Amino acid sequence: MIADPTLAVLTYSGLALLSAGFGAIPVALRQRLPPSWLGWANAVAAGLMLGVAYILMAAGLPRTPAIGATGAVLGIGFLYWTHGVAGTQELDLDRLGDPAPDYGYQLLLVNTLHAAPEGIAIGVAMTLSPWLGGFMALAIAVHNVPEAAVLAAVLKSRGLTLIQAAGAATATRVSQVLFAVTTFAVVAAAPGLAPWALGVAVGALLYLVMAELLPHCYRQAGHTSIALVAILAMGMVVLLAAGAP
Amino acid sequence: MSDTTRVFTYALLTALATGLGAIPFAFVRGISPAVVAWTNAVASGLMLGASFGLVAEGTGHGAWETVAGATVGVGFILFTQRLLARSGVRLGQGRGPGAQRMLLMIIVMTVHSFSEGVAVGVSFGGGMALAAAITIAIAVHNIPEGLAISAVLRPRGASLAACVGWSVFSSLPQPIMAVPAFLFVEAVRPALPYGIGFAAGAMVFMVLVELLPEAFDRARRAPVALIVCLTLVAMVVFQQYL
Known about the structure:
heterodimer, A: mainly alpha, B: mainly alpha, two-stranded antiparallel sheet, 10 helices, 2% strand
């Protein structure tokens, strides 16, 4: 265990960030990933995030439901608004071989925005308990792998080398570390903000699942396989979190 | 009135409350694709929120048992889907995939009420002092379930009366299961996390495999996502205050 909690947040979220690099492995193995793989990868990420949102809710919401809910509505509303402003509401995260220049920028923007609430989730979980913080970082780390794989596959199909694609896919997740450390520092200094941060993280994670991860993966693989993969990932999170001390 | 009769009567009252969930749909008539998508989104949020509550309760009794129950719940939906697809079912004016989805929704919500009925009986087993409070809490909790069922049935052409009827029907297992659970509390208690897990697994899987894909097919994804998330959060908070 790391004694200094801020250093622990930095280390955990940093490791979660680096794990995104593993996403390059499937991209390296296949010249061109089948679309169904990308669908399943997003379904894994969606299931893990739904599980994480549940864990955060169960851990923190019962104490202050009203503030938590207000925070959640803020988180949902903020992402809805940002997507509206950026014109990315209907953006698919996984269009292989689409050469449009706009698509590249939008993809990187959306991925960077996507990682921010995940950082908030790690930071706020750490303020609830070190165990929960570590668990959250682990769950986010695992979910980074399929998400980075999807992004790296798309970038590679646009002509980047494997190293460039993997590097860019990892770099978009730097916002996780930034938001994890900032959230932890702010909430540690002002504990009254904890339920707000928790609510924002839960709302934003739910919105990311429903607006970014799930919609398009149903088109890339069968409904049944997507639903099975997602619920399996969700069940794993619930089961593992039940082992909390 | 004996305690057993009271448990049955109270649980029956909570089942009737489910019908109240159909009332907002007195005003929904359109069968436009977007309306189906949005009401699907409402049902999804309600069912996911309810499942989060169930999972929290179930893992309190035992995490492995809950997940085992959820696995059976997923299997049950898969099995029923195949069965319905093969039978060429008709419901009211609907037929084909629409009718299958309506029927599957009724089946899921009805089957999930069995384990809720057990939970009701067990909670009465703690003594009848809190009976009135528990009854009101469960009755209020049932209204969103009627809402979820009507959200799926109504835009596909079911009449308001049919929505009320099927909503109440879906909760009838509650009084039926509450009585034996109340009488044999000690024997039933260990089975509770399995039942709760089953209900949660079946509902989450129903959302993931039927309601969400259809919603994303028929409308733009941003409003669908917005409705699902806001309904989910509202449902979770609603349960917290009961």
